[in-house]
Specification:
Elements (H helix, E strand, L loop, with lengths): L8 H25 L3 H23 L8 H13 L3 H15 L9 H18 L6
Helix pairs in contact: 1-2, 1-5, 2-3, 2-4, 2-5, 3-4, 4-5
């Protein structure tokens, strides 16, 4: 930051959330390749949660609890008119639940497909992080 640029804490936070989101998605795919299905699922969920946090921050919406995840996606869907956000959000939220499942009930092909859906969710949400 040059001395002439004003410090933009909100903009910096949004960028941090977006970068963390993408990093978690990348890690989720590595965990999937290593057959660590619990971590693949959890990082997939984390990728979605961090992008939703970026959207909430950019839009001035509350997001400081797990329960706000769905509300932010609902508001984003209203803003964009894109119902895919709700559906993709439910898929991402389901990855979080996998963390509590026994491994024999987890399926790599299903988790891999859902990570593709999480990637689509991130791509749909990212434009809403612009201020």
């Amino acid at each position: 930051m040059s001395p002439m640029q004003p410090y933009d804490e909100i903009g910096e936070s949004i960028e941090d959330y977006r970068l963390q989101s993408r990093e978690f998605l990348e890690k989720s795919r590595r965990y999937l390749a290593d057959d660590d299905l619990h971590q693949a699922s959890e990082k997939g969920w984390g990728a979605a949660a961090w992008m939703v946090k970026a959207v909430a921050t950019a839009q001035g919406w509350q997001y400081d609890k797990h329960e706000h995840f769905g509300e932010v996606l609902y508001q984003a869907g209203k803003l964009t008119g894109d119902d895919r956000l709700r559906i993709l959000g439910e898929i991402a939220n389901g990855r979080h639940g996998n963390f509590y499942q026994r491994k024999r009930f987890l399926h790599a092909d299903n988790i891999g497909a859902s990570l593709d859906e999480v990637a689509a969710l991130l791509d749909l949400l990212e434009p809403l992080t612009e201020r």
